[in-house]
Amino acid sequence: MRKICMIVLSVLLGVSVLAGCGGGGEGDGYIADVYISEDYTGELKVNYIPGDVGEFVILEKLTDAFRAKYPNITVKLQTLTGNDYFKTISSMAAAGTLGDVFLCQDEYLTMTAKRNYLDDLTPYLAQEKLNFDASLYNDNMMAQSKVDGKQYMLPRDHSQVVIVVNLTMFDAAKAWLFAQDGTEIELPGDDWTMDDFYEIAGKVQPYLNANKPNGLQRYAACLGTLWTPVVNTVVKAKGGKIIENNKLAIDNDTQAAYQEIKRFADAGYAHKIDDVSFTLGEVMFAISTRTHFSKCDDMKSGGQKVDFDYLPFPQIGDGSKDYIPSGAVGYGMFSRSKHKREAMAYLRFMMSEEGQKALCASGNIVPTMKSFYTDETLKAHWQMKKTGGTEYYNNGAFIYNVEKTHLSDLTASVVQYDKNVDILNGIIGFFRSYNLGEKTWATGLSDLEKSIGSYLG
Q1: Of 329, 372, 415, 445, which has the fewest beta carbons less than 10 angstroms from its beta carbon?
Q2: At CA 424, angle to CA 421 and CA 425, rounded to 5?
Q3: Angle at CA of residue 354, ends 351 and 358, nearest 5°
Q4: How many whole angstroms separate alpha carbon 128 and alpha carbon 90?
Q5: Are residues 339 and 345 in contact, defined by beta-carbon separation less than 8 angstroms?
Q6: What is the pTM of this model?
Q7: In angstroms, how far is the first alpha carbon of the chain from the final one?
Q8: Could you give the C-alpha distances from 172 to 206, 256, 388, in angstroms and in order?
Q9: How far is Cα 313 from Cα 325, in angstroms, rounded to an integer?
Q10: Is 162-326+388-457 assigned to CATH 3.40.190.10?
Q11: 289 near 1, Cβ under 8 Å?
């Protein structure tokens, strides 16, 4: 999400890779007919990013279901093992040892596609026997999985950002505040705003300041100010821009947008660099996504299970620009895979109703197939009840304003796409230094122009 927001950030920016792809099979190049029957005999290697239990559970459930349908295909799951995703993918692709199918993220999609590490799936998906209908899936996720109009990965799930709430902590704050001076607080409804968030954070922070288990300072909010989808969304909602026409475009609107989040840190309601952990009870409200459900579900305090729930990401704009941050994660096929039939069978299965149900069994995803949002029978596969009870979580938070989902697109139009990582890191560093008060906006902007200006245009 996510230490939730920082886990998200680490998963997006620091990752790893695998061991190799077996020999045999069809070899390189396009295969005119990739359809296989369920008794097909073959092998397949799938690469995933380690370090996040929630991610592995998702992949494990999907793969178990795939193995059940294709019992004669041997599937090996292998981690990506480096500390820089793009460099790892590059080195393994050069060596020809990248898995047949590997995890992709929207920030790196342009680079991996234009470096020819990913195969263009468009002609495969058009094959009549595969019977793939792109209109069945979340439009934003499908669009974000393309480069120059071509489908280079398939979005595994709908990864909309939400706010997760530690209800055990909130209820304790509610009782403490009422006992102090009669102050009453309630959780906001779905249609809340950043102003509402700021107000409630201010109300609960005195309780957190006065109640510090083991002397550890706790905060009302962990807002993920260093996670690019959040930065993108806040800036877009306020009418600002970061990159426009391959030029740095950080202006007064962008500064005002970032102040929307920075004010929480300035007021003492959030740690300045957001390195607090929701699952360790250090923060009451935090950015999350469904991939971190299992982490939250395992939370305990004093040996007792912690109650939690979700709220939609608070509205930022003026009503016409109430964007919801999100990131696209999916899987693509290595362009030099020796097992393209098996790879396409795996990807197609992931997107099928059967595969989406298998993903739901992890408890950590919201399906990307749109029928799961509206069909009551299909909803039941991903809408979760609280452990040991009949009460549902606020599952609607994960698809609230789904048509206004805004995905990370900071570097989508950068000409020198191999420099995207440097640009992302430079922008994140800029916001970090401003958030910490290490640099003024003008000084930080000047330094950023010097560090990444040569990569643009």
Answers
A1: 415
A2: 85
A3: 90
A4: 33
A5: no
A6: 0.85
A7: 33
A8: 12, 34, 22
A9: 8
A10: yes
A11: yes
pLDDT by residue (tens digit) across 408-449?
Answer: 777 777 777 778 888 888 998 999 999 888 999 999 999 999
- What are the pLDDT digits (tens) for 269-324? 999 888 888 988 899 999 988 888 888 888 888 788 889 999 999 988 666 666 88
- Are 14-159+328-382 and 162-326+388-457 in the same CATH fold? yes
CATH 3.40.190.10 fits 14-159+328-382, yes or no: yes
Cα distance between residue 42 and residue 72, in whole Å: 7
Residue carrying the six token digits 């990401």: 313
Alpha carbon distance 159, 145 (integer Å): 13
As given in the structure block, the two tokens for residue 323 are 């964007």
CB atoms within 10 A of CB 437: 11
| Tokens at 21, concatenated | 């792809």
Q: What are the boundaries of each domain within the chain?
A: 14-159+328-382, 162-326+388-457
Contact 127, 35 (CB under 8 A): yes
Which whole-number Å values give the CA distances from 356 to 2, 63, 228, 402, in the listed order?
21, 12, 27, 18
The pair phi, psi for residue 389, each rounded to 5°, is -145, -175
